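step 4 of 6: structure.
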Amino acid sequence: NAGVTQTPKFRVLKTGQSMTLLCAQDMNHEYMYWYRQDPGMGLRLIHYSVGEGTTAKGEVPDGYNVSRLKKQNFLLGLESAAPSQTSVYFCASARGHQPQHFGDGTRLSIL
Amino acid sequence: ILNVEQSPQSLHVQEGDSTNFTCSFPSSNFYALHWYRWETAKSPEALFVMTLNGDEKKKGRISATLNTKEGYSYLYIKGSQPEDSATYLCAFLDNAGKSTFGDGTTLTVKP
């Protein structure tokens, strides 16, 4: 029972490069979320999805895109990475108002 | 942007002290309020899910209350232990599925 799996765990990018972070959950949850966590701050919502084929913007969506083509997967894309996007990224999934289950995080550095 | 605020930002107590934290949130479009415990280098773990005004939840020495009309929740820890040291996060869920976290209260319990 894997829960929420994030891939990759670490990545270093150069400014202007693109990449996709993958989040996969095996709990059949409807809701999925992408957050970023920066020093001294809590979790800030980037984008979220309440079901397959639907996505919505969170607090800090600029510079990111997402897709939810399959219920179990939620992809976060950076089209042109910037140093300001250096952060730890967490994915989470949930059923309705139940607590969110988090992945282990992806540490992303952009030089 | 929704304002979910937690206070205090940090707290240092002695082993055996009792303590409490506050989470304030918008009183409109309320769906649920979550409390999480977040230890360094780990993912957040759910403590409580609160959905109804007047809810009181308890797990061991930790308890929480909810007031949706005035937009606040309290988390109480009775007889703090060093293993209670962590960051405690609250998250507001609106009825569209959007999740907004506070910046957390970091608790340090000294032996």
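step 5 of 6: annotate
 - The interface with chain B takes residues 31, 33, 35, 40-45, 48, 50, 56, 58-59, 90, 92, 97-100, 102-105 of chain A (CB under 8 Å).
 - The two ends of chain A are 36 Å apart (CA to CA).
step 6 of 6: archive
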